[in-house]
Amino acid sequence: MSTVRLNITLPASVNEDINHYAKELNEKKSHIISSALDMYFDYLDIRVAEKRLNDNEPTISLEELRKELGL
User: Fold this and answer.
1) I need a surface site. Which of 7, 28, 57, 60 has the fewest CB within 10 A?
2) Residues 36 and 17: beta-carbon distance below 8 Å
3) For residues 10 and 32, what is the distance between their CA atoms, to the nearest angstrom?
4) Residue 60 pLDDT
5) Has residue 5 been placed in a domain?
6) How many CB atoms lie within 10 A of CB 34?
């Protein structure tokens, strides 16, 4: 996996939390942040799916999908 260097601004309290967990778990801060973002993106995926469901987007049945795909 390739990596990218970012400069970000965080509240001091968040930085303190990151430092605390990195020290406690003996992990790099970048690993803590990356893991936290991965988990948050999973949460956002759920929110997007719920939004799309609530937006009443047209849906098709499994049978219609199979027919459309020729299965």
Assistant:
1) 7
2) no
3) 14
4) 87
5) no
6) 13
Q: What global pTM score does this model have?
A: 0.70
Residue 24, domain member (yes or no): yes
Asked, for residue 58, whether it belongs to a domain, the answer is yes
Please state at what angle helix 29-54 crosses helix 12-25, rounded to 10 degrees. 120
21 CB-contact burial (10 Å; exposed 0-12 / middle 13-18 / buried 19+)? middle
pLDDT in tens, 19-47: 999 999 999 999 999 999 999 999 999 99
The predicted pLDDT at position 25 comes to 98
Q: Take residue 20 and report the two structure tokens written for it.
A: 């605390």
Which domain, by its residues, includes 60? 12-69
Report whether 22 contacts 28 (CB < 8 A). yes
